[in-house]
Each structure stands twice: as structure tokens, then as C-alpha cells.
Specification:
Layout lengths: L8 E9 L9 E8 L4 E5 L6 H9 L6 E7 L3 E4 L14 H11 L6 H9 L15 H13 L5 E5 L7 H18 L2 E5 L3 H7 L2 E6 L2 E5 L1 H15 L1
Parallel strand pairs: 3-7, 3-8, 5-6, 6-7
Antiparallel strand pairs: 1-2, 1-4, 8-9
Helix pairs in contact: 3-4, 4-5
């Protein structure tokens, strides 16, 4: 995060959303306050509305009711998949990073090497994106997001298609960004172990409604659920 940036803050008030514009709502009466410097993992079953909430935060969708307020100077997004992962698409790591640099209108190219170094991928500048492993690919996407020195980073299931060692490296890095640099993170997660180990708060969505709790509280809820089913 830039030294001059103000920590990001997100407020969601009485949000309702439906893809049809009418009931039933995919998300209903969502109220969420994300304070500066939080690391929020959004969890829930498939189809619960996690990805929909992420798209609303990014501005790709608009709510039918309610309000979303994102106070961030610079927001960055790390997708789950990318067209550059196709081995037939002939683009190098540097070319992809440089294209994004130009999109952000950053003058110096030194930010590319700096971002790649942050994620330990500085030796891969000439590698084709399609030849990278899942873990390497995800690290590059994170490096790309960091080019603009965001104060809010939104990630879509960052461990999908990533080996266990790379998962550990990626989550350790994200936790470091959050704890040491104060970067606000929102991560849509299917990896509950990672969410419990790294988040400052868990936002659980079920049947279109959500509640915020600590990782310890959520772990206790999971244990209670498991015991109820046994």
C-alpha cells in the first residue's frame, strides 16, 4: 500500500440483490462494515451468494435496494482464472505486467520488477504465462494487482488450482500484506483452513443472508454443526 494512501473502508447497508430484479433475492438485508486494515474471508456453500457479493463490491452489479460505500483510493482485484493461463496464448509475464502498467498510466517500469520481487517471481519475467504452474500463475496475478499500490485488495478464491506449498506461500504473503502494511483484504474463500488461519474476520453467507464473526467463533460454529450432524 502506498505510504500516502488512506486505509480502505467498506460499508454495506440493507442490501438486496436479485439477478431478475425481483424476489426471490440472492442476497437480502446484507449489512457489513469492514474497517481499515481488516482481512475478511467471505465463506459459504456453493450458490450462497459469495461471488455475487464480490461482483457488487467491484461495481460489476448494482443492488436493487440498499447501498454499498467503498472508501478506497485504489482498489485492485485478483481473479480466480485468467485468459493468460491458456498455454496457446503467447504472452510473457513481463508483457502482461507491462500492459497493466500502461492501463494504470504508471510512468516507471521499475514497478514491474518491484511487484514481481514481492511475490518471489522476479526470475520469471520472460516466461510465457501459459507455461506457469497454478501457484506461479496466482502469484503473478497478485503481483499485477499490486502494481497500482492499492489500499483495498479483493480476491476470488486465491487457492483454486494451486498446490499446497504455493498455497502456504500465497496466504503467508497476503497475511503479511495485511498485518505489516495495513492493506485491507476481502477474499472469497472455499478454503476454510486458510480462512480460519489468516483472516481477522469471517463473513459467512447462508440462504442469502450473512453474519460477521471472528475465526474462533466460526470454528466453534463449524464444530457445533458437525456434532449436530453426527
Amino acid at each position: 500500500m502506498s505510504e500516502n494512501a488512506r486505509p480502505a473502508k467498506v460499508e454495506i447497508n440493507q442490501l438486496y440483490f436479485s439477478y431478475t430484479g425481483t424476489q426471490p433475492y440472492v442476497l437480502q438485508d446484507i449489512n457489513l462494515l469492514i474497517e481499515p486494515g481488516e482481512y475478511i474471508s467471505v465463506v459459504g456453500d456453493n450458490g450462497s451468494g459469495k461471488s455475487t457479493l464480490m461482483r457488487l463490491l467491484l461495481g460489476f452489479l448494482k443492488p436493487q435496494k440498499g447501498r454499498i460505500t467503498v472508501r478506497a483510493q485504489r482498489l485492485a482485484y485478483v481473479p480466480q482464472k485468467n485468459d493468460f493461463s491458456n498455454a496457446a496464448f503467447p504472452i510473457t509475464v513481463y508483457e502482461m505486467m507491462n500492459a497493466y502498467r500502461k492501463l494504470l498510466k504508471l510512468k516507471s517500469r521499475s514497478c514491474i520488477q518491484a511487484a514481481l520481487t514481492q511475490v518471489g517471481m522476479q526470475e520469471q519475467t520472460r516466461a510465457l504465462m501459459g507455461t506457469l504452474s497454478g501457484g506461479q500463475h496466482q502469484k503473478i496475478l497478485i503481483a499485477r494487482a499490486l502494481l497500482g499500490q492499492p489500499d483495498l485488495l479483493i480476491l476470488d478464491e486465491p487457492s483454486t488450482g494451486v498446490d499446497l506449498d504455493s498455497q502456504h506461500e500465497i496466504y503467508s504473503f497476503l497475511k503479511k500484506l495485511n498485518r505489516e502494511q495495513g492493506l485491507t483484504l476481502i477474499s472469497v474463500e472455499h478454503n476454510l483452513d486458510a480462512a480460519l488461519a489468516n483472516s481477522t474476520q469471517i463473513y459467512h453467507i447462508s440462504a442469502g443472508q450473512g453474519h460477521l464473526c471472528s475465526p474462533d467463533q466460526y470454528a466453534a460454529e463449524l464444530l457445533h454443526r458437525q456434532r449436530s450432524l453426527s
